């Protein structure tokens, strides 16, 4: 009788494990980016991994791959489409190759500062843009931060628009980035980020433009002497999840991902701003010449790049987007 009771007790315990899910294998969530390991964007992914495993009691196991370990931006996005990668962050420029509406965020001098960008991206327009990703089999969660892009080169100090003329410059693989720099007088060359340092070192290109944190963490300062704080584009870095992976999650797991992503977004943005301040100080110590555009000169750059914004706005698929964003930013500034 005691043996029967013991066996019954064992079966009940096993059944309980099955009901609570502890006996099930955890769902594997591979997260990747192309960003250097030490940057705030990469550290945020590790923070996300720890917090999500904690919030889901281990029902989701997260592995993080930074610094282009498993491919460039295109490979990562396609990986999410095929669910070989379950989540990623990347700048909006590469995303626009798949969801062209995101090009609106690649237009020059759209935002004056981070606060303007947050107001727009965390509001209805930002949500609408994220929804565009679902047609590409990707679920947009929110926006992490890559930061304002600055210009570096190893030829000369760039103080005014004329100094850009003829500069061989690496850009993102994005047609609007290339058009911006063509209008400003440079010779833009698209290049994968993982190839950029070698391109600068070997002289294939003379300059590049990236958030200042990348200039430090990817050691571009070793092969560049001049940096100009152009702040010509603000780069958000959307946090995205494979739609195929999203669909196998429980409602509780989806909620956990959204809540943890929002928590990490807030801390990552603060960390990125601090990273930009520290990076500038570090580059000054290394002897890099850092130049600020005067207000008058900045207006000249804005005027010179305006044709790109006009061409974008004249495209049928993008009609109204520029106007909506400008109106939203104007309304926010008046509050």
Describe the structure in your own words.
There is one protein chain. The protein has 335 residues and is an alpha/beta fold. The chain has one domain: D-Maltodextrin-Binding Protein, domain 2. It is 48% helix and 18% strand. The protein contains 13 helices and 10 strands. Strands 1, 2, 3, 4, 5, 6, 7, 8, 9 and 10 form a 10-stranded mixed beta sheet that branches. α7 links the parallel β5 and β6. α2 packs antiparallel against α11 and α7 packs across α12. The longest helix is centred in the C-terminal third of the chain and has 35 residues. It is globular and about 65 Å long. The termini are far apart. The N terminus is likely disordered. It comes from Shouchella lehensis. This is TRAP transporter substrate-binding protein. One of its GO terms (cellular component) is outer membrane-bounded periplasmic space. InterPro entries: DctP_fam (IPR018389), TRAP_DctP (IPR004682), TRAP_DctP_sf (IPR038404). One of its GO terms (molecular function) is carbohydrate binding.
